[in-house]
Amino acid sequence: MTEVRAKKALGQHFLVDLNIARKICDALSGGTPDAPAAVLEVGCGMGVLTQFLLQRSDLTAYGAEIDTESVDYLHAHYPEFAPRLLAGDFLKMDLRRTFSEVPALRIIGNFPYNISSQIFFKILEHRDFVPECVGMIQKEVAVRLAEPPGSKEYGILSVLLQAWYDIDYLFTVNESVFNPPPKVKSAVIRLRRNGVERLDCNERLFVRVVKASFGQRRKMIRNSLRSAFGDFGGAEHPFFSRRAEQLSVAEFVRLTDWVEQHSHS
Question: Where are the beta strands (DSSP E) in 22-175?
Answer without folding.
Answer: 37-42, 59-65, 85-87, 105-110, 132-138, 165-173
